[in-house]
Amino acid sequence: MAKIPRFRTEEEIREFWDTHDSAAYFEDMEDDKVQVTMREKGVLVLPLGEGRLRSVREIALEEGVSSNLLLKNWIDEGIKRKMKVTRRV
């Protein structure tokens, strides 16, 4: 039975699965729960440089979340922090 290697970047994951058949690794895979979040109204387009986007993807991979969820969480945290500071004044 083949073992799925550990990856350091999202690019390594893509390269691996582009060249390997997932059926060969089925026994090494674990079931996982999937959380589906319905899209809220409003979309923000945020252009990021390639280096910054790469960093976001690597951090998201380390934390086990999507890049979009990571950025949404960061924005939520920043808003909460700012609101606390504003309300103290």
From TrEMBL:
Domain of life: Archaea
One of the Pfam families matching this protein, by short name: CopG_antitoxin
Matches recorded under InterPro entries: CopG_antitoxin
Name of the featured protein: CopG antitoxin of type II toxin-antitoxin system
